[in-house]
């Protein structure tokens, strides 16, 4: 049995990554590709690396017959996404990759994104898409909100530790090193090769990055009290990858045990042996997340480092994993591609 | 039905690439991994990006029971390869990725590689592994010699043109731009990141690169007369990819037609529309080869450009494609992974 | 004695490179920085790497008092440049870095650039800025037209060989590998880090690149007959550098001798020992050009490779070298910075 | 007046960087280049980017006549350095770039470096080379110990804050992102381009990096009590640069004021306007250090980020700055080169 999916926003990087993954998925077929700004073009024109695939041409959203579609991936910018999704059939299964349905609280949404939410009722319906922690809800969901790629990485480190009470909730620092594809295919001077390669810097420092909205929502819910972490992302000259270095107060061995236990049956989350640390090069192009734990020389402090691919596990791979669950397909289908190294 | 394979030389890049590809191959199982220098280690220690795979530990070659093996990939350095392969059971199917069995003429081998061949009789038995042109022979072969990665790229451009007589045989220039993984996992100063990134240069210029032995052998055989091309490789700061820019004398439109006709049924060779040119970024991590043709402003001259991934179509992907044929598996199995972009 | 210069178009890469070089020049002072689109900003806002310099803020062109200026560098886009320069005082010394005054023939200009020239009389006045070959004219010039960066590289290889009659004029191929800063600080999708890094491709193939206008003009003048070369540039993932691989028919030893003799007194052109080849990493950030010669295995054919930094010797370094000559300053002043490696 | 210097260990990256800087220094002349393993070679063979310089050939250490030398730079590996330096004339001015004389306490040295110190008495004589804080001692020193590149970066952030008492001494985290040239020209698998580019990771995590010895020594001395910081370096795919992200408890505005006041007369340390953050791309190839301060959303916490070039301000630039002081030359001579961007 084969399911038909549409991808809206197919001309961006997360759209391309969805197509790359679905290309070898045995039970899902891409029936429609929406991209308003590039409608009329073939996939070979927009993404020459996908030219070997037999895919429909890009169309505008209103040219898609959603009655023929079992599930729709929305890979649009935030704000646009909520407007578009509120126009889609109310029975259509949707995996949204944007930020629009990640926050359940309309006020929190407005605080972090600067505009009132245009589809408040759907905000409530949406299930948060961090598969390992919302698996059962996702199976039954109609609308799943993919997590932010930074937010996913940080949560893989911290959720089990907060839940188990093995770290101090008031001393959590997350220092992230992010590859450039996380910024999307946008024409900005600082994303040019000549500007970005050979240099790196911190951005959105001091607690201003929007993914903090997700951290606050999720960590506070787990802890049963407000939890505020410190979070500084850095842009590094690589295309794919997020490396999260987390500084926490707690016993390193217990932290390692807690993480190992939490993820021992998870197909995509690998907790490395105690004292080993991950590298983004070892998860590139794959749906895997590697986590390592080291004790600091200062007693009672530990460093936890996680690595994942922002486009795969941090976005499109996660989206496909959730789509598998929503469609009743085995969860790992199409997602077992090994990382591409070197 | 599942076939059991061994990979000897599993700790190099072509070994890792074979494992990456076979990881999602439905009909081939890796039963043994040989790597003398790293015997005793797990794959996670040698290639952390493959740690999620359930693979046997690395062993020395004499620990492998070849009676249990349907086919053996040899990813060893040249010269070592001929010594090792001549010790293997004479009935074992072998795909050799080294240079040792590419040249049929022992003198040519000695000329290009500097030492007499240690297994001359097997040189004769070996079938040249450029799948699209030796497919039927490969199906029935016991020993297949994988082509050089540069040699494959150049031949995809030039074989059909020489065969069809549409270019001048005495004016063929091949200017190659090669990524660094083609040099293997070898500890050389000029392969360090600090040396190589941000710079590029020509090497083995003037007709001294060993892959010329393959060009001479193959092109002369096709033409029925000696053909000598000019060939200059360049090392560029990227990990995967070969871009071959070929300058030929001939009618560009006819050249394009000839190539399009030659490859129209090939699953992995894509001839782009006339006047479009390929990029290595659009085949990275895949088994595809893209070819483009442009007419020069000087009448009667054309530029043909081909791009492929040296580790995949130029080496391990080609090897797996040939193994599929030798084992009676559908040729494209396990090889339809889309390129990894960005 | 100190000369005052203005830089118009100071917010682009060639503008920044001029400032970098002049920053340690003992006899030139930057008195005005023009950049219409960023007027009112400080240099620290536009180029934070220059923040330590005590420079005037960016202004619009009409805010500059050219009476106080001894020489003006124009680092504007072509077409804009001719319009702006024709408005400047007729006695002002000008070094133009754009393409606008490189071609002496108005028809050739229109053919390559697609619009009629707006300052035809100044086209005739302009001296072509390839210092080593127009030194005496440049000393006395009022308006010097900087060469194209690709055009400079190709000419360093070919001018002495054409002049000496040691190569076949009908079989000249120039295969260029260009770093990305040559494309300027322009917001194009294919210049994004995520698109460009890890891949490379040919562009403007087949004789359509505008720098061919310069090659045609100069080489035909030297030869005293029309000379048309083949020229294909490639974009590689590095920030600075041009590597020109030239395939010529001629005796390699004689070619090497000819080049060595031509450049033996030149401070910035280094001809390597016969059979050694240059790398862009060894000239990065400097005004040097390295040239190497190798004989091909086919008798009577040679490969000549040149490397220079497109922003320095290919553009802003050349401009400063010419300005030194025009102002009566020792030619190498401010230009002896060693390359930045690694 | 011109001073004669020798560089021992001239074939490594810090040796090359010293030569690059001294190449345009008006008062220092390189009289001898020592490099035991490459003795007999010219600089053009070891570092082709320096081929334009008129330099003596590389020799073994015992071929150098130190009577003719005013100052000697030692750019040797640690441990070798102490052995070599203890053999040099006792009156020779020396700037050591290794780790051997950074720690004053022999036990601390043995703890961090694993071997007893072979020249304990010289350990006491040596002056710590962080110019801005030991300027007067350096002027009168015979032996100056260059700081670690990471150690320098961290101290530029933290010394004024500890001295002023504006941060909590028990909650200091330093997360460093280091470019690869810091690892030297060493043949290690993980420094290969194919391994390193496109990926990044933490190393020496948990308080095991040797530069902690310097932090402990210096910060404890300033505070008058033991201070232990947390410090995790990360390797990123770039050639030059260190970005130090420091998480501290204290008032951000006061921290900014403190730093701005501390460095207001320093020629190479630039404190950015409050809330602006530095990037390594803006100091590459230069002796400048940029520092920025941002308040966290959690009251009483701040992020301080510093960027410098590990080869220049972190090593060879610092060494030359100290040599200037020791020789009575104006401190900034030869060091005002602007950063090389893009």
TrEMBL record, chains A, B, C, D:
GO process terms (BP): L-arginine biosynthetic process
Catalytic activity field: N-acetyl-L-glutamate 5-semialdehyde + phosphate + NADP(+) = N-acetyl-L-glutamyl 5-phosphate + NADPH + H(+)
Top-level taxon: Bacteria
Keyword Oxidoreductase set for record: yes
Record-linked SUPFAM superfamilies: Glyceraldehyde-3-phosphate dehydrogenase-like, C-terminal domain, NAD(P)-binding Rossmann-fold domains
List of catalytic residues: 149
GO molecular function: N-acetyl-gamma-glutamyl-phosphate reductase activity; NAD binding; NADP+ binding
Limits of the Semialdehyde dehydrogenase NAD-binding domain: 4-141
Compartments, as annotated in UniProt: Cytoplasm
Pathway assigned in UniProt: Amino-acid biosynthesis; L-arginine biosynthesis; N(2)-acetyl-L-ornithine from L-glutamate: step 3/4
Keyword Oxidoreductase: yes
InterPro entries: AGPR, AGPR_dimerisation_dom, AGPR_type-1, NAD(P)-bd_dom_sf, Semialdehyde_DH_NAD-bd
Record keywords: Amino-acid biosynthesis, Arginine biosynthesis, Cytoplasm, NADP, Oxidoreductase
EC numbers for this chain: 1.2.1.38
GO annotations of cellular component type: cytoplasm
SMART domains to which the protein is assigned, alphabetical: Semialdhyde_dh
Main localization category: cytoplasm
A Pfam family annotated for this UniProt entry: Semialdhyde_dh
PANTHER family referenced in this protein's UniProt entry, alphabetically: N-ACETYL-GAMMA-GLUTAMYL-PHOSPHATE REDUCTASE, CHLOROPLASTIC-RELATED, N-ACETYL-GAMMA-GLUTAMYL-PHOSPHATE REDUCTASE, CHLOROPLASTIC-RELATED-RELATED
Family: Belongs to the NAGSA dehydrogenase family. Type 1 subfamily.
Role description: Catalyzes the NADPH-dependent reduction of N-acetyl-5-glutamyl phosphate to yield N-acetyl-L-glutamate 5-semialdehyde.
Entries under NCBIfam families matching the protein: argC (TIGR01850)
Name listed for the protein in its UniProt record: N-acetyl-gamma-glutamyl-phosphate reductase
Lineage: Bacteria, Pseudomonadati, Pseudomonadota, Alphaproteobacteria, Rhodobacterales
